[in-house]
Amino acid sequence: MDMEKVNSMDFGEFVDVFGNVVERCPLIAAAVWSQRPFSDLEDLEKHFFAFIDALPQSGQEGILRCHPDLAGRELQRGTLTAESQREQSGAGLTSLSADERLRLAELNAQYRARFGFPFVLAARLSDRAAVPRELARRLHCPPAQELRTALAEVKKIGHLRLADLLGVDPAGPQRPREPGAPDARRDARGPQPGAVRPGLEAVASLERRPHTRVKEGEN
Fold it and tell me: For this structure, is 140 an active site residue?
């Protein structure tokens, strides 16, 4: 798909195509649509990521709570989004042994209990052996640091999904920046006419995402 096609999409088509770039957050695509025209993948993803960065902490945590547990109940029930299903399958999380599933369930529950949102990892950049190791490591990170890390993973996932949709090499020069790194790509034009800005109804919806802390051992 080329950028001419993207820029010609009406609101409904754009949200249909890009609504799951950020897991189960089509309202972000709705906000980004009003920022057309886009020049390339880097420009398009800049607007997705700027929306995330501009949210208050409660809204950012709401985005994280839209993500499923890795190898969790949604995978077992077949209720993952198509993108999450492909990503978890590609990481080998659909073929875990009973002991591996139990270990991940325990770690996922501990993580949720500590941070109030699920463990988010770009599964396509990992594998079945690395996932529990990384989960166990991040479980002990300070909450503020872990929020930044989790949001960086959301951006990695979004970058890969956008690259898929546009049919470009995700290993190209457009890569999500690391937590705390300066954003040299930030849009200097400011909000465009008709833009849906963080702080309005869209953000309120994210902030209202249920904040459920589960008991250790649940998944």
Answer: no
